[in-house]
C-alpha cells in the first residue's frame, strides 16, 4: 500500500475523533472536505521532496498534525475555545495545572497516538522495520497525479479559508475553515487591528457605548467613606451554590447567610480569559477588559495601569494582596507591580503547611492573613486587602480529611460531586475568617466584597452523568449563561436593608461600584465598568470562554454564529425566550468597547525597568 493512502486513512480517523469532541452536529462530509486537503498538501510535498526515510517523514508529519489535534481537544475541554498559537506560548503553565489537564483526559483521546507508537516501535527495530517497509510501496506517486492532487487540495484550502475570514465566532470559524486551516490562518493573519488613538478615548465615549445615563446625585455615594476595603475572591465559585441544598442540607451555609444579610447581586458574571484567576484579579483591580486570546498578566503587566490600589493609595490607603500560590505563576509579580499594590503575600509567606494543589489550604490562607489584616487595621490609616482563596480549584480532588459533606450516591466519584465537596470546604474556611473579622471589630469598619473568580464546571468538560446532575440542579439544561454566572455580595456600613438585586453586572464593575461607596470620583480615570447601585442597564462584552462577539445585556446572553443574525440567545428568564432580547447595535457597541479597552491599555506607558 502506498504510504500516501495509508496515512490518509489514519488521519481521517483522527480528524473524526477531534470533530466529534469539539463540534456539535457537524455534517459527516465536513471533516473530509475541510481537513483532508490540508493533509494532502503536506503528503504531496513529502512525495515530491523525500527519497530516503520516507516512512519516517510521513510519521513525523503525522505526529505534528496529531499533536495539534490533541491540543485542540484538550484545550476545548478546559476552556471551551479553539487553541491558537498565542495560547501555546503559555504551555509552561500547563505543568502547574497538570491535575486539571489529566482529569479531562478521556482514554479514547489517546488512541490518536496509537499508530505513531506502534509504527515508531517497529521502525526502531531493524528486523521489523524491514517488514514495515515491505508493506509500503515506496515508489513516488506519478507526477501528473501528484500535481492534480496538490492543486485541487490547495484550491479547496483557499476556498475554505477565504470566505470565512470575517466570522467572529472562533469555533464556527474553525468549523467552517477546518481546524488545520484555521490554525494556519491564525498564524499568518494580521496580529493586531489598528488601535484607536488614545487621545480619542474618553469616558464620555465609553459611557455612550455602554448606554450609561449619568446620575446627578448617585445613591450611596460616600456611604462608606474612608472605610477599609476587603475583597475576597472565591476560587471557581458559581452562583448556583447560593441556597443550594442536597437532601435538605446547605452546601455553602456561610455564603448563603452572607447573601441573605447583605446586598446580593445574582446576575453577576465572570469576565476572565486564559489566565483565569489572575485575569479576575486584573479586571477587578483595573476595570479594563482582558486582551484577545491572551492572559492579561502576560500582555498588560508591563504597562502603568490605572487601578484600584493606586486610586486608594492616593486616598491614604495601605494596600496588599494575599494568595498562597507562588507569585510568579501567571506573571503575578509583574501584575502587582503594574497595578501598584504596596505588598503581596504568596507561598513564601504562607509556607508549605497543609498543602493542597498549588499551596497551603484556605484555612492556612485565612489564619495567616487575619494577622496581617489586624496589623493593617491597627495602623492610623485605612487599608485595602485583596484575599484570594484557592483550595476549591479544578479538578476538586480534596484530601479525604477535608471532605465532610454527606453526598448521596449519584454525586459520588464524579466532577460535580467533587466540586460540591471542595466548595463546602471553602465555605467552611471562609466562615471562620468572617467570624474572626467580626470578633476583631474589622467587619463593621469595612466594605467587604465577595465574588467568584470564574466558572467551576465547564459544560464542555462534563460527562453525561455530570450534565444530568447539572440539569437536576437547575431544573433545565445547563447552559452558557448558567456556566459563567458567579455571585457578588457586598457588605458595607451605612447601607440599606439586605436585598437581592437583579442588576446585571460583571467583574469590570467592581472598581466603579467601590469608588461610589467610598465617595471617590473617577472623572480622571478611564474605566469600562459602571456603578451597580446607580444603573439598571448594562452591556458586558465577553471573551475567551465564549466566542468573540458574545455579550450580556439586561435581558440575555448573546453568542454570535457566523454573524449576528444566526447567533443564539440565552435569556435570564424562560418567559423572555420569545421576546426581542438583543440588537445588532448592541453587538457592534460591545465589539467597539473591547477594541477601545485594547487600544487604551496597549498605549499606556511601560513600567520603568529597575
Automatic annotation (TrEMBL):
UniProt superkingdom: Bacteria
CDD domains hit by this protein: LTA_synthase
Biological classification of the source: Bacteria, Bacillati, Bacillota, Bacilli, Bacillales
Topology term for the membrane: Multi-pass membrane protein
Similarity comment text for this entry: Belongs to the LTA synthase family.
Cellular component GO terms, alphabetical: plasma membrane
Entry keyword annotation includes Iron-sulfur: no
Protein name: LTA synthase family protein
InterPro entries named among the record's database cross-references: Alkaline_phosphatase_core_sf, LtaS-like, OpgB/LTA_synthase_biosynth, Sulfatase_N
Residues reported in the UniProt entry to bind Mn(2+): 235, 277, 453-454
Main location: membrane
PANTHER family named in the record: LIPOTEICHOIC ACID SYNTHASE, PHOSPHOGLYCEROL TRANSFERASE I
Transmembrane segments: 5-23, 29-49, 56-76, 107-124, 145-162
Amino acid at each position: 500500500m502506498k504510504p500516501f493512502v495509508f496515512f490518509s486513512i489514519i488521519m481521517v480517523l483522527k480528524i473524526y475523533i477531534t470533530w466529534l469532541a469539539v463540534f456539535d452536529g457537524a455534517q459527516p462530509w465536513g471533516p473530509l472536505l475541510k481537513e483532508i486537503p490540508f493533509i494532502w498538501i503536506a503528503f504531496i510535498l513529502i512525495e515530491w521532496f523525500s527519497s530516503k526515510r520516507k516512512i519516517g517523514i510521513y510519521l513525523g508529519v503525522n505526529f505534528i498534525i496529531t499533536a495539534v489535534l490533541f491540543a485542540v481537544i484538550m484545550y476545548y475541554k478546559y476552556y471551551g475555545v479553539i487553541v491558537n498559537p498565542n495560547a501555546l506560548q503559555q504551555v509552561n503553565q500547563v505543568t502547574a495545572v497538570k491535575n486539571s489537564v489529566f482529569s479531562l483526559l478521556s482514554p479514547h483521546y489517546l488512541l490518536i497516538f496509537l499508530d505513531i507508537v506502534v509504527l515508531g516501535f517497529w521502525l526502531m527495530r531493524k528486523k521489523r522495520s524491514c517488514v514495515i517497509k515491505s508493506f509500503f510501496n515506496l515508489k513516488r506517486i506519478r507526477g501528473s497525479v501528484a500535481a492534480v492532487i496538490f492543486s485541487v487540495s490547495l484550491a479547496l484550502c483557499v476556498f475554505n479559508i477565504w470566505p470565512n475570514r470575517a466570522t467572529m465566532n472562533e469555533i464556527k470559524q474553525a468549523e467552517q475553515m477546518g481546524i488545520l486551516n484555521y490554525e494556519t490562518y491564525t498564524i499568518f493573519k494580521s496580529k493586531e487591528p489598528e488601535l484607536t488613538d488614545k487621545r480619542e478615548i474618553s469616558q464620555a465615549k465609553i459611557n455612550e457605548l455602554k448606554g450609561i445615563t449619568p446620575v446627578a446625585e448617585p445613591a450611596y455615594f460616600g456611604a462608606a467613606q474612608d472605610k477599609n476595603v476587603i475583597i475576597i475572591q472565591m476560587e471557581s465559585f458559581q452562583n448556583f451554590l447560593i441556597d443550594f441544598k442536597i437532601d435538605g442540607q446547605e452546601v455553602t451555609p456561610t455564603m448563603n447567610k452572607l447573601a441573605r444579610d447583605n446586598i446580593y447581586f445574582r446576575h453577576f458574571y465572570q469576565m476572565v480569559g486564559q489566565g483565569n484567576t489572575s485575569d479576575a484579579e486584573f479586571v477587578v483591580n483595573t476595570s479594563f477588559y482582558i486582551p484577545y486570546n491572551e492572559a492579561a498578566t502576560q500582555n498588560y503587566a508591563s504597562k502603568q495601569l490605572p487601578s484600584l490600589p493606586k486610586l486608594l493609595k492616593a486616598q491614604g490607603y495601605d494596600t496588599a494582596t494575599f494568595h498562597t500560590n507562588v507569585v510568579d505563576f501567571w506573571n503575578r509579580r509583574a501584575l502587582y507591580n503594574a497595578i501598584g499594590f504596596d505588598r503581596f503575600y504568596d507561598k513564601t509567606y504562607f509556607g508549605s503547611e497543609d498543602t493542597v494543589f498549588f499551596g497551603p489550604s484556605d484555612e492556612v490562607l485565612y489564619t495567616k492573613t487575619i494577622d496581617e489584616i489586624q496589623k493593617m487595621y491597627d495602623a492610623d490609616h485605612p487599608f485595602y486587602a485583596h484575599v484570594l482563596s484557592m483550595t476549591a480549584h479544578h479538578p476538586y480532588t480534596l484530601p479525604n480529611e477535608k471532605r465532610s459533606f454527606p453526598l448521596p450516591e449519584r454525586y459520588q466519584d464524579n466532577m460535580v460531586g467533587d466540586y460540591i465537596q471542595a466548595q463546602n470546604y471553602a465555605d467552611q474556611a471562609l466562615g471562620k475568617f468572617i467570624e474572626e473579622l467580626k470578633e476583631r471589630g474589622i467587619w463593621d469598619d469595612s466594605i467587604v466584597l465577595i465574588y467568584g473568580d470564574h466558572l467551576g464546571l465547564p459544560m464542555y468538560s462534563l460527562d453525561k452523568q455530570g450534565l444530568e446532575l447539572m440539569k437536576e440542579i437547575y431544573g433545565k439544561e445547563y447552559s452558557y449563561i448558567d456556566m459563567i454566572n458567579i455571585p457578588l455580595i457586598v457588605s458595607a456600613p451605612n447601607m440599606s436593608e439586605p436585598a437581592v438585586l437583579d442588576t446585571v453586572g460583571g467583574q469590570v464593575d467592581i472598581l466603579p461600584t467601590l469608588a461610589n461607596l467610598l465617595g471617590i470620583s473617577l472623572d480622571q480615570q478611564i474605566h469600562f465598568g459602571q456603578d451597580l447601585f446607580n444603573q439598571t442597564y448594562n452591556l458586558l462584552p465577553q471573551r475567551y470562554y465564549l466566542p468573540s462577539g458574545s455579550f450580556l445585556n439586561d435581558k440575555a446572553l448573546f453568542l454570535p454564529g457566523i454573524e449576528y443574525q444566526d447567533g443564539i440567545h440565552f435569556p435570564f428568564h424562560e418567559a423572555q425566550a420569545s421576546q426581542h432580547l438583543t440588537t445588532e447595535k448592541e453587538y457592534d457597541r460591545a465589539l467597539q468597547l473591547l477594541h477601545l479597552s485594547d487600544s487604551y491599555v496597549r498605549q499606556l506607558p511601560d513600567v520603568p525597568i529597575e
